Automatic annotation (TrEMBL):
Domain of life of the native organism: Eukaryota
Molecular function terms from GO: metal ion binding; peptidase activity
InterPro entries per the UniProt record, alphabetical: Metalloenz_LuxS/M16 (IPR011249), Peptidase_M16 (IPR050626), Peptidase_M16_M (IPR032632)
Protein name according to UniProt: Zinc protease mug138 (Meioticall y up-regulated gene 138 protein)
Keywords: Hydrolase, Metal-binding, Protease
Organism of origin: Cladocopium goreaui
Classification via PANTHER family: INSULIN-DEGRADING ENZYME-RELATED, NARDILYSIN
GO biological process: proteolysis
Any single Pfam family the record assigns to this protein: Peptidase_M16_M
Keyword Hydrolase: yes
Length: 318
């Protein structure tokens, strides 16, 4: 059974499915918080990403105790929104949520040692992504840049652009950032699963809204401020060839990706899944066993449009 939409209140949409199979005293709640600030520009994206990582780092001791008690949480900027996931015993989720939101609001200034740790780690990840990604990863990231808007950092931003902007972000730029994130409004989507009643899901949603002071809802695209723009492009008819030089000039490997895009529909989706199963074994037999040094990946994508992609990755072996 798919989660059902409980209600659409001011700035909050709640999707809920109560467990009726395992009946364990556990649950999972994920909050997807949308704000125009996150993707306003490259600098605002970096500030939000660094700040959310700093919040997690500041809660390390609390998170350790929570983990021992069977609870867990995460905060990350992902898919065009600030994603907060909570899991564990259903009667303690509100305690964990309150601790996380209190830290988000009360951390008006990021401690210098925490900022230094996060900045170093974040910078290393960006450098690896910009200069040392595998060819297949570079191809996948470029497809994301070309086809999607609003689900990653601001288009046409790249990891290299983020890396160039990162040194300009200072610790005091994160002061009182939680207030700035939602000053233009926010929209929250909630997915509540497990041993939670519909009232439990609503109470947790209200606690998030109250804790973060999300009093200003976003509106439709016809009004301002509006929900952030998100879209996936449809391929043009025919075929298109894109060539991309590797970001790592010393890497002798390369990749070739082919992506087919079909109209969205349940019947087409089932056909592509069947095709995926039929071709998988044959691809493995030919490319992995008969051509040494070749690897293959294949998969199904079903988002706004349906796609099937095949990748050949050539690995040079001395």
């Amino acid at each position: 059974v798919v989660p059902q939409l409980l209600s659409v209140e001011s700035g909050v949409s709640i999707f809920h499915r109560q467990d009726d199979l395992f009946k364990q005293p556990k649950a999972q709640v994920t909050f997807y918080i949308y704000s125009p600030y996150f993707h306003q520009d490259v600098s605002s994206y970096l500030k939000t990403a660094l700040w959310s990582n700093c919040v997690e780092e500041a809660l390390q001791d609390y998170a350790y105790d929570a983990q021992i008690a069977g609870m867990g949480y995460s905060i990350q900027l992902s898919g065009g929104c600030l994603k907060m996931a909570l899991s564990g015993f259903n009667d303690k989720l509100h305690v964990l949520l309150e601790a996380v939101t209190d830290k988000m609001v009360s951390m008006t200034s990021v401690p210098e040692h925490i900022f230094g740790i996060i900045l170093d780690t974040f910078g290393d990840d960006l450098r690896n992504q910009a200069y040392h990604s595998q060819p297949i990863s570079q191809a996948q990231m470029r497809f994301q840049d070309l086809l999607n808007r609003g689900s990653s950092f601001p288009a046409p931003g790249t990891a290299l652009e983020l890396l160039e902007t990162l040194p300009k972000v200072q610790r005091n730029d994160l002061d009182n950032l939680c207030q700035s994130l939602f000053v233009d409004g926010a929209h929250v989507e909630v997915l509540a699963l497990g041993n939670l009643t519909s009232n439990d899901a609503k109470q947790l949603s209200n606690k998030l809204v109250t804790g973060l002071k999300l009093t200003k809802p976003l509106k439709s695209a016809l009004a301002m401020p509006c929900l952030p723009y998100r879209a996936e492009a449809a391929f043009p008819t025919g075929s298109t060839l894109w060539e991309l030089d590797s970001a790592d000039v010393d890497d002798p490997n390369h990749a070739v990706m082919m992506k087919l895009q079909l109209p969205e529909g349940l019947e087409d989706e089932m056909h592509v899944m069947l095709l995926d199963k039929l071709l998988g074994a044959k691809f493995f037999e030919i490319l992995r066993t008969q051509y040494f040094g070749f690897e293959k990946m294949e998969g199904l994508e079903a988002e706004v449009v349906l796609g099937l992609f095949f990748v050949h990755r050539h690995v040079c072996v001395d």
